[in-house]
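Researcher: Quick test of sequence recovery. Tokens follow.
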């Protein structure tokens, strides 16, 4: 089982729709215009949030965001077959019984079931 944080399009970019809370918390990020800027924003986010999991960045064409329709779900369990096995809201915590059950169900599957 592997866990990844995927940094997608900036939701509250300073040059688009900036939230007052972002200004108060000094989280002011312009919408990245290229892959390098997005990677820099992702690294900054990772450091600020003290993430312990690997951080991946969506391409500048927002392919991952489009494929996974990340709103309102923000947590996905990808099955052994590569398909989405479960989706969870951004308020889901690691100890959520439904999340644990989804992970355990995927881990219980035999690798031979993989496509």
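Model:
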């Amino acid at each position: 089982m592997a866990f990844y944080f995927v940094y997608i399009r900036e939701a509250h970019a300073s040059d688009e729709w900036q939230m007052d809370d972002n200004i108060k918390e000094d989280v002011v990020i312009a919408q990245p215009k290229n892959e390098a800027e997005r990677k820099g924003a992702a690294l900054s986010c990772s450091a600020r949030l003290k993430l312990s999991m690997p951080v991946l960045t969506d391409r500048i064409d927002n392919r991952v965001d489009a494929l996974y329709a990340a709103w309102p779900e923000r947590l996905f369990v990808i099955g052994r077959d590569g398909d989405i096995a479960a989706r969870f809201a951004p308020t889901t915590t690691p100890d959520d019984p439904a999340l644990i059950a989804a992970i355990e169900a995927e881990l219980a599957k035999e690798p031979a079931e993989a496509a």
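The mean pLDDT is 85.
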